[in-house]
Amino acid sequence: MRSAVLRRSQQALKNHKPPTRHNFSTTLSSSSSSIPTVCQSCRRKLAEPASPSTPQRRWQSSTANSQATTNIPPRASAVPQTHYEFFPKTLPKGPPPSGPFHIDARELRAEFLQLQAVAHPDRHGAHLKLRAEATSARINEAYKTLQNPLLRTQYLLSQRGIDVAEDETAKTEDAELLMEVLDAREEIENAQAEEELVDMKRVNEERIRVSEEVLDGAFQRDDMKVATAEAVRLRYWVNIKESLDAWEKGKPVVLVH
């Protein structure tokens, strides 16, 4: 019986056929070659199928483009939103009350020149020239405003929605101040020589210094009422200074009231 079972097993092994093995590379090649290259309806040549290397070439191109854009200046969203943000070295704490009202004029100018050297339109390609010109103009405006105590004061107030630069109602009702301004105008107009105005120049420079001290304290306390009133006073003193600097014998004096 055992010998009969052994014979049946041997016979089964002889009759068994191993599964057919497919050559993967051959199949892939034949399937690729079977793809038609000519449209059967219009007989036009079809586009060749993309090769396996295409995705790699596309990635390399994308990488090259991303590297090319690294030298492009930041977009408008990254541009400083306030004049103070243009000068992080000179004004690291920003505007008052976080930072001081007074600004070191030499440090501000040094940083301004550095910024303009980088942002100058001539240093950029044609496709970035307009953006560079806009950035350069904003840097100029920021510097012009911050280096001038009166313009700086008016700018800080404008950031709080207070307009003392263009608002005609932003005038003083201080009768003593108005009399002082009128006396200064008369003295400037009656001067026969510039030497006669030396003392007035010294007095007026002291007025400006005191006004800046008052403004510094007001902004540090965040007292916009005092800052607004002192901004109007400072505008008078600056106007007198401009009249003194531009003095000519017999020339009428125009002061802002």
Automatic annotation (TrEMBL):
Biased composition (Polar residues): 51-72
One Pfam family in the UniProt entry: HSCB_C
PROSITE patterns: DNAJ_2
Domain J, chain residue ranges per copy: 82-159
Origin superkingdom: Eukaryota
Keywords annotated in UniProt: Chaperone
Low complexity bias (residue ranges): 25-34
Coiled coil residues, start to end: none
This protein's GO CC annotations: mitochondrion
Matching InterPro entries: DnaJ_domain, HscB, HscB_C_sf, HscB_oligo_C, J_dom_sf
Chaperone recorded as keyword: yes
GO biological process, one term: [2Fe-2S] cluster assembly
A molecular-function term among this protein's GO annotations: protein-folding chaperone binding
Region (Disordered): 1-80
PANTHER family found in the cross-reference section: IRON-SULFUR CLUSTER CO-CHAPERONE PROTEIN HSCB (PTHR14021)
NCBIfam families attached to this UniProt entry: hscB
UniProt similarity note: Belongs to the HscB family.
Protein known as: J domain-containing protein
Source organism: Hymenoscyphus albidus
